[in-house]
Amino acid sequence: MDLNRTELIGRLVKDPVSRKLSNGQKVTTFDLATNYSWQDIKTKEKKETVDFHSVVFWGRTAGVVEKYLKKGSRIFMSGRLVYRTWEDKTGTKKYKTEIIGSDLIMIDSKNRNLKKEELTEENITIEEVPVD
């Protein structure tokens, strides 16, 4: 059996964006920033970098993200990595790496008491992800 699982703790870079597709399904996207720090071997200086991750949530969890999260919200999330390719209107091939979220824990204390039913995972296919 194969495994494709990603777990992140970070902060939303900006407010989430939600859309309702023609089939009625809700999708919410946002960028998540994660920090990484290390000590330079030669200079012993502390270094730090930030990575930005594109995240997509579907269905009920997409609604929870839209309702409760905003720029700066700190979350723990897990999901699976996907790599998409498409052609834009000019025929140029585009590439995007995303995390399709499956689990979400809001670390900010004001959002910790949500009902588990609000975070139920729904089945989706990657072909349904809207392209910006």
What does this structure look like?
This protein is mainly beta and 132 residues long. It contains one helix and six strands. It has one domain (6-38, 48-110): Beta Barrel (OB fold (Dihydrolipoamide Acetyltransferase, E2P)). A hairpin with a 5-residue loop joins β5 (74-87) and β6 (93-106). The protein starts with 5 loop residues before the first strand and ends in a 26-residue tail after the last strand. Mean pLDDT is 86; it is low at 123-129.
Q: C-alpha Rg, in Å?
A: 17 Å
Total tally of structural domains = 1
Order of helices and strands: EEEEHEE
Sequence of strands across the biggest β-sheet: 1-3-4-6-5
Number of strand elements: 6
Q: Tell me what the CATH architecture is.
A: Beta Barrel
SSE diagram, text form:
Blueprint: E1 6-12, E2 17-20, E3 26-39, E4 46-58, H1 59-68, E5 74-87, E6 93-106
Parallel strand pairs: 4-6
Antiparallel strand pairs: 1-3, 1-5, 2-3, 3-4, 5-6
Condensed summary:
With 132 residues, the protein is mainly β. Helices cover 8% and strands 50% of the residues.
List keywords for this structure.
five-stranded mixed barrel; 132 residues; 8% helix; mainly beta
